[in-house]
Structures are given as C-alpha cells and as structure tokens.
C-alpha cells in the first residue's frame, strides 16, 4: 500500500531527533537549528523500515534526510562493536560527479561524529564507478565500504562479481537519488531489474529510498521504486511530499512589447540588457539555454558586454566541453568565484554547485518539472527564495513560459514517462542472471515481473528473449551472433554458456548508446561536412537541411555516411538544431490549449458586447459620424485587450510586455479566423486543421495540436503515411511542439479549395485509435530513425558488441554490423531486438500511447477536428512552424523579417475584409 507520511506522522523535531543514536542526536542538535520537513517525515519512516520516496526541492536537506537514519544505525553498531565488514547501504546516482559530492558530504559529518566517539571512525564510505582503479576495487573487496556509492551500470556489474556480490548479501538499504531522471529512461529500467536481482541476493528485505526534487505522479514513481513482491502484490511505500515547502518566484519576461515588429538586433539588445541587470543584482546567476550552441553564443555576447570579468567570472558548462573544463567551472561555482555560468542541461541535476542567487532561462524549458528543477537551483537553502526569470524570444515561447509559470506557482507538474517492457535491457539482465546460476524459467520470469517496468511482460516475450540469447536463430550464426546462454526447453531451464559470457557482460553493460558524427558527402563523393547521428535519424529521403550555410537534400545513408545533393533555393524542412531541442510535455501542451480557448472566449464575449453597444450607438447617430464611430470602436477593442492583458499579468506571472504580446498574438489569430468565417476557437478540445498554399504552389495541411513534439511526431507520421497511400506520392512532414504540417505537393483543386478540403477530411478519417499503431509502424520501418535505434537496441541486447576480448569496437563497425543484422532480422517473425526497436521509437522517442488517446477522444466526442481554408495566407499560429526550417539558412534578422512579412499578410487580409 502507498501512503503519505503527513497522514502517518505528527512528530515534533524533539521526538524525531530522540529516535536517533545518542551520539548522532547530540551532533544534530548542535549542528542544526531545526529539522526540515523532508527530514521530519522521512527519518521516522526509514527508521521503521519503510520503503520511502522523498520529494523535496534542492537545498531542503533531502539527502541528509535519507542518510541520517542510516548513519544513526551504523553509528550504533560501531559503538556496540557490532559493525561487520560488509556493505550495509548502497547509494545509486545517475551522475558520477554527484557520487563524488555525496562521498565528500558523508565523510565530513562522519569525521565530526568521530571526534565525539572514536568508534565512528570505523564506518567506511566508498565510491565504485567505471573510473574506480583496480587497486581500489581490490581494497574494497578486502575491506568493503559500509556505504557503497555507485551508478546503475556498476551495481549491475558487481551483482555478477563472484566475490564482491557476497559482500552485498546483508545490505539493508538502497538509496536511488535523482529518481525522476532515472525512471524516465532505460537506465532506470535497467536499475529496476538490478534492484530485484539485489533483493533476490539479499537475506534481508531491502529498504528502498528514492530522492527527487521535482516529479509527478508520486504514486507511479513510488511503484517504480519498490516494485512488487513474489506474490505479485504491490510493495508498501511511504511518500514524503515536500515538493513545495520552499518559497519560489518565477516571472515570464518579454524583452519588447511587440515581438513581431521588433528588429532582431533590438530584441537581442534588450534581452542581453535584461540578463545584464539580473547578473549585476545578484552575486551568482545561472543561465539556462536549450542548446549547447545557444550556451556558447550567450557566453560570447556577455563577454563582449563586460558585465563581469569574462576570464574568471563567466563560463559555459555543457556536455560537449571536456571533463576538466566542467570540473573547473563546478569548483569555482562552489567556491563563490563565478558571477555567471551559462549551461544547457548539464547543471540541471543535483551536483553541488554552491549558492546560486538567481536563474535565467532563455526560451522555454518545455516542461513544468524542468522549469521548477532549474529555478530550484537558486536559493540553496530552505529559507531562501528560488528566483527564476524566463525570457521569451518569440510568441510561442511566451505562451509556453507564461503557462509554465502559472502551473509551477500552483504546484501542478507534468507527468513523467516510464518506459515499459524494454526487451533489450531484459536481454542484458537475463545474461547477468545466467552468469549467477542455473535458473528455472518460471523463477526468473517471476523475478523480472517484480519490477514495475516489466509488470505486464508476457511469458511469450520472455521466451523469445531466451531463444535469441540461446542462439536458436540459426540464420544469425553466420554473422557472429552466438548464444550467450543455454536454454533447455524440455526442462525449462537456462544458464551461462561458455567462458566468455562474464567478460562480454561486464564490458558491454549499460544502456547509454555511443554517439558519433556522421560524414556527409554529395553523390559524386565530395565531402560536405558532418552532422550529429541524432540529427540523421530524423531525416527522411527528400528532406532539405542546411550544412555550412548551403541547403542539401538528403538521399540516403550507409553506416555513418550520409549522401546528399545540392538543393539551392529550396525551403529547408528541418533545422539542424532540431535534435538538440527538448520536447514540450503533453501536460503543458494541454494547459496551453486550455489557455488559448479561455482567451478566445474572453475576446468573443468582449467583442460581442462592444458590437451590441456599437449597434446601439449607430442607431442613435442615424448614420452620421462614421469615422468617429470607427475610432471609438478601435479604442474600445484596445481597452478590451488591455483588460485581458492585465488579468493575464496576475494570473500567468508575466511582466507587462509579455502579457500584451500574448494578447496581441491571440487577437491576430482571432481576427484571422473570424474574417474567414470560422466561429470555433482553438483550444485543447477544438483542433484546427488549416489548408495553406505556400509560395511554391504546394498544398499543406497544418494541424494546430499543442501536444508536444513526441505526440505530434506520431500523429504526423501516421497521417502522412495514410496520405501517401491515398495520393500515391511522398508526403513531407514538418513537426513542432504546437503543430505539425503535411506537405501534399501540387494539387488540382476545385473552386475555393473544396476538393482539397474533401481530401483533408478523408486523410483525417483514415487514421483512428485502432489503426494508428500499425500505420505508424509502417511509416517508420524504413527510416534512419529505426536503423540508428536498432544499433542502440542491438548493443544493449549484446547482439552487437561494443567491446570484445579487450578490444573496443568502433561505432562505425557497430553500425555496419547492425545494418546487416537488421536486414536478416526483418525476415524473422517477431524477433525481440527488432520488436524492441519499433517499441522504443513509437513509445519512448514518440508517444503513440497518448496519440491513441487523442484519437479516442475525437471518436468519443471529447475533441474534434475543424478544417478551414486559409488559401495563400497562413494563420498567425502557423508562422513559427513555417519559418522553422529557414533558421539555419538565414540570419536571425532575416528570419524576423520573414515572420513580420507573414504577419503583414495576415493584417492585409483582415483589413481587406473589414473594408468590404
């Protein structure tokens, strides 16, 4: 049963501190004025042996809340001469750097406790990761640390280490830090199986402790942490929900009042002036961008402005920099020597970076949870306020940021996605199980299904993995895919095969794929440049992209080489930074859709009231004073927009510029739709589909769905596949977080586009909740995305090895091997590695499950598609999507001019309609 701590415990600080060992109790009273809420609730829960999930902000003492109970128990054992040479507690974190911080932060209080009672000095803390020297590992075997600090990959390795695993048998506690980061990826799936294997090894019931700053839903993450018992019953867990105990202020800022008409240099100048002001008002400022290149660009401009000492007080921090540079920046941050650090995602998690006064976010962080996580890096104590400034540079970012602020301040967080039934991770662990001992299939299956991530795994899927690992697919043996286990179907048992299984397992463990650059050549063999592999997987034949300032059409790829042809003058369909961008969360998208609907309703009600008043005035004027009447109407509309903007300022936590820019954006779309005679308002329930003919005469269908890129990608590819079958031609796709576009090409339509609207209706009707999965599967089968992801899944499944007999296999060789194997696997019915590739692309990279739910909502009347014909002038909501591909080929100033030109087209249409 899952319960909440505040319903179970009403202890005072004195009562909780009184539960600790005498020495620890005295130290706590001397060191701290009081306990923090997470400490007050989690200490008694952990001392009582309860599985415990602690959710509280950075700086609230949650790490100490987990360790204090454990230290108290270890100190008590040491003082009574009962501390043995074995591992009592295992701490797991996704970050090696965080592990080193934790070790340091544990040794300091233990040293202080040792000064009170010398026996405490016997308590050992050790870090074991891939960087740990062999001599240190040997020392750990002789004198194991009582608290072992490690990573998900290392814990899986030590479970198969014959000698060291014996030191884990009496473990009592396991702590999973940054659980929100782990549970949303295959690293978390991997860890969930390691925890079940650890529990199988241990003589005690493990007490599982999860730590996280920002996550939702708590109950689901608790189930991920604790899993199920041998009878299939959900294990108990106590949730300490202290997520919102820390004061926080967030505001969305627009550098200018009119984003559409502001020149690019003016927009940039105002943005940097805002950042400069924040930096000068605070001792240390952390600045987040959404891309690594963006972080470098911001550092460059700030250094030229002489805001701070560019050499000693300003730096970038992201994953493309060397480890030495990153560590140097982190150390200087901890020591208070930095005034400003610009980062992408690398400083999001809880490594100790000292006291940050304020956080600036440029652009949208794309999820409420990520926003709170980033802003929570400031005010590094429970009493200090976390301050966040979200600076938006375009209309869509403005709306996203504002809705994010509103939800963050209300305590509403978007849901985490936890991958399920990952067969590649399962294959890795089955090999690990086989190395341990001989297993009955039923026993191993029960162990696997104790993990939350495999609760719904079928026995059929489990046996397919066993058959693959046992080498029962003979057609693969000629390509060096040999059995790693033996599997006797008669006795229904399996175990380790051969002497190399342990070495293969230990040197190929893990879920993080190797990423490399892909070389790009023209068809005549001329080298053009390089692109990231993650960008390549997004390309389809016919896609246009920019490299080195020139446009190219993607033709094909083989291994880590892409072939293109020149496409000068053609419109790019995908920006090169697309692979770096974080996807908007579905929950945040739904909130944006609701806000759109609410603002349109306010505009409708206000303008209807104005029109009623205007009609009355016209009758009284009896046709006289037309110009004065128009001026009065204009003033009334401006007053209405001002009223809505003031309301939004308070509700959405924006500055005046931002609220007015949002209203103008919504009003432009409102006027555009009303001119076309569209009375329905865009919202989370009304999904507008816009027909637009571009400057090249191509017909496009733009679906205005604010579902985030993962859901939109699934919907777009399914609709594009259906359209391709229907029209017997390729259909290009452009995807963003707030819309997606199908480019149908040239089309002979009837008067006013009736034929194309009928076609749009048929395309929409051809995709439903029952067939989207099969349509999407057909759409992705021949894509670069599947080819790349197959290699990732094949390496995780130990089908393609990254290391063999002490030699590292290059990524290029891995990719070549994977492509050959994939062609063979496509001929096999339900081959588990290929099936997992399809599942990963559709469920993890995209979100076909939520796409199915959207279509089910349509079928059951909770949502509806509304098609309208915009002809040759696209609506304001579509402008960012239309120009997105151009962002590489033009300067920002030119891109701004393109947006302004599109806006002027809209205004001319509205004016022309009004004059009639």
Write a brief caption for the model.
With 916 residues, this protein is an alpha/beta fold. 47% of the residues lie in helices and 15% in strands. An 8-stranded parallel β-sheet has the order 1-8-2-7-6-3-5-4, sandwiched between helices.
Computed structural class: alpha/beta
- The overall pLDDT average reads 88
Question: Based on the structure, what is the oligomeric state of the protein chains?
Answer: single chain
Low-confidence stretches: 887-892
Question: How would a textbook summarize the main sheet?
Answer: 8 strands, parallel
Helix content: 40-55%
Gross morphology is globular
Into which percentage range does the β-strand content fall? 15-25%
Topology:
Elements: E1 2-4, H1 5-8, H2 13-18, H3 22-31, H4 37-47, E2 52-55, H5 62-79, E3 89-92, H6 96-116, E4 125-128, H7 134-142, E5 147-150, H8 152-158, E6 173-176, H9 179-183, H10 186-201, E7 207-212, H11 218-226, E8 237-241, E9 248-253, H12 264-281, E10 285-288, H13 292-305, E11 314-317, H14 323-334, E12 340-343, E13 358-362, H15 368-375, E14 386-391, H16 395-410, H17 423-436, E15 439-440, H18 441-449, H19 459-469, E16 485-488, E17 493-496, H20 501-507, E18 517-522, E19 527-532, H21 533-536, E20 544-547, E21 550-558, E22 561-566, H22 586-621, H23 626-652, H24 656-675, E23 686-693, E24 699-704, H25 709-727, E25 732-735, E26 740-745, H26 754-765, H27 772-780, H28 784-796, E27 803-804, E28 807-808, H29 811-825, H30 832-845, H31 848-859, E29 864-871, H32 879-883, H33 892-915
Parallel strand pairs: 1-8, 2-7, 2-8, 3-5, 3-6, 4-5, 6-7, 9-14, 10-12, 10-13, 11-12, 13-14, 18-22, 23-29
Antiparallel strand pairs: 15-17, 16-17, 18-19, 20-21, 21-22, 23-24, 24-26, 25-26, 27-28
Helix pairs in contact: 3-5, 4-5, 8-10, 10-17, 15-16, 16-22, 16-24, 17-19, 17-28, 22-23, 22-24, 23-24, 24-33, 25-27, 25-31, 28-29, 28-30
């Amino acid at each position: 049963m899952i319960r909440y701590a505040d319903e179970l415990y009403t202890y005072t600080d004195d009562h909780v501190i009184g539960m600790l060992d005498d020495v620890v109790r005295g130290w706590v009273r001397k060191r701290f004025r009081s306990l923090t809420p997470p400490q007050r609730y989690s200490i008694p829960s952990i001392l009582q042996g309860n599985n415990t999930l602690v959710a509280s902000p950075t700086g609230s003492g949650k790490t100490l809340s987990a360790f204090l109970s454990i230290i108290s128990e270890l100190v008590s054992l040491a003082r009574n001469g009962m501390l043995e040479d074995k591992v009592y507690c295992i701490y797991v974190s996704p970050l090696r750097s965080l592990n080193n911080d934790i070790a340091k932060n544990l040794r300091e209080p233990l040293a202080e406790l040792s000064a009170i009672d010398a026996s405490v000095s016997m308590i050992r803390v050790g870090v074991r990761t891939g960087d740990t020297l062999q001599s240190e590992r040997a020392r750990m075997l002789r004198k194991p640390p009582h608290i072992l600090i490690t990573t998900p990959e290392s814990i899986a390795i030590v479970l198969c280490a014959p000698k060291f695993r014996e030191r884990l048998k009496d473990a009592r506690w396991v702590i999973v830090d940054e659980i929100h980061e782990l549970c949303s990826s295959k690293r978390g799936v991997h860890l969930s199986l390691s925890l079940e294997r650890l529990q199988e090894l241990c003589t005690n019931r493990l007490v599982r402790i999860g730590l996280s700053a920002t996550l939702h839903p708590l109950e689901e993450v608790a189930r991920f942490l604790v899993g199920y018992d041998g009878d299939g019953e959900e294990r108990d867990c106590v949730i300490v929900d202290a997520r919102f105990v820390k004061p926080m202020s967030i505001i969305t800022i627009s550098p200018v009042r009119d984003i559409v008409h502001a020149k690019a240099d003016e927009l940039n100048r105002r943005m940097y002036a805002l950042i400069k002001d924040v930096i000068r008002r605070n001792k240390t400022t952390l600045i987040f961008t959404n891309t690594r290149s963006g972080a470098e660009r911001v550092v460059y401009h700030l250094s030229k402005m002489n805001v701070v000492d560019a050499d000693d007080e300003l730096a970038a921090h992201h994953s493309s920099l060397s480890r030495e540079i990153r560590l140097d920046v982190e150390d200087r941050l901890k020591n208070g020597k930095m005034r400003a650090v610009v980062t992408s995602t690398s400083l999001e998690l809880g490594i100790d970076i000292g006291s940050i006064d304020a956080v600036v976010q440029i652009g949208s962080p794309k999820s409420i949870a990520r926003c709170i996580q980033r802003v929570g890096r400031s005010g590094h104590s429970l009493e200090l306020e976390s301050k966040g400034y979200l600076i938006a540079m375009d209309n869509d970012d403005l709306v996203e940021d504002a809705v994010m602020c509103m939800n963050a301040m209300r305590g509403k967080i978007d849901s985490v996605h936890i991958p399920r039934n990952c067969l590649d991770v399962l294959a890795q662990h089955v090999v690990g199980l086989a190395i341990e001992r001989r297993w009955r299939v039923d026993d191993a299956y029960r162990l696997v299904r104790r993990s939350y991530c495999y609760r719904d795994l079928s026995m059929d899927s489990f046996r397919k993995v066993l058959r693959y690992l046992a080498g029962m697919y003979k057609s693969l043996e000629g390509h060096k895919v040999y059995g790693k286990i033996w599997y006797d179907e008669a006795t229904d048992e399996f175990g380790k095969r051969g002497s190399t299984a342990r070495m293969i397992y230990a040197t190929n463990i893990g879920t993080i794929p190797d990423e490399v650059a892909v070389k790009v050549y023209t068809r005549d063999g001329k080298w053009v440049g390089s692109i990231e592999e993650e960008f390549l997987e997004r390309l389809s034949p016919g896609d246009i992209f920019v490299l080195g300032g020139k446009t190219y059409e993607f033709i094909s790829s083989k291994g880590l080489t892409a072939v293109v042809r020149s496409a000068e003058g053609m419109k790019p369909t995908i920006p090169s930074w697309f692979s770096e961008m974080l996807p908007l969360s579905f929950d945040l998208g739904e909130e944006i859709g609701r806000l759109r609907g609410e603002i349109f309703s306010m505009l409708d009600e206000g303008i209807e009231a104005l029109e009623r008043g205007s009609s009355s005035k016209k009758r009284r004027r009896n046709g006289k004073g037309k110009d004065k009447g128009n001026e009065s109407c204009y003033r009334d509309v401006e007053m209405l927009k001002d009223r809505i903007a003031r309301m939004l300022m308070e509700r959405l936590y924006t500055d005046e510029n931002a609220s007015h820019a949002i209203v103008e954006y919504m009003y432009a779309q409102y006027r555009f739709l009303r001119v076309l005679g569209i009375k329905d308002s865009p919202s989370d329930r009304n999904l507008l589909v816009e027909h637009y003919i571009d400057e090249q005469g191509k017909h496009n269908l733009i679906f205005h769905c604010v579902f985030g890129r993962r859901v939109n990608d699934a919907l777009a590819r399914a609709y594009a596949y259906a359209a391709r079958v229907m029209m017997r031609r390729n259909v290009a796709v452009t995807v963003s977080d707030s819309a997606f576009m199908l480019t149908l090409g040239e089309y002979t339509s009837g008067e006013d586009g009736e034929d194309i609207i009928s076609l749009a209706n048929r395309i929409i009707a051809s995709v439903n909740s029952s067939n989207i999965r099969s349509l999407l599967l057909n759409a992705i089968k021949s894509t670069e995305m599947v080819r790349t992801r197959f290699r990732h899944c094949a390496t995780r499944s130990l089908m393609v090895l990254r290391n063999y007999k002490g030699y590292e296999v290059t990524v290029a060789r891995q990719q070549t091997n994977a492509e050959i194997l994939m062609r063979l696997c496509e001929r096999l019915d339900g081959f588990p590695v290929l099936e997992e590739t399809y599942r990963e692309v559709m469920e993890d990279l995209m979100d076909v499950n939520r796409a199915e739910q959207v279509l089910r909502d349509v079928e059951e009347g909770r949502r509806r598609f509304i098609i309208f014909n915009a002809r040759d002038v696209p609506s304001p909501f579509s402008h960012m999507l239309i120009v997105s591909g151009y962002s590489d080929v033009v300067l920002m100033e030119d891109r701004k001019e393109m947006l302004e030109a599109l806006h002027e087209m809209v205004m001319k249409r509205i004016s022309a309609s009004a004059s009639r």
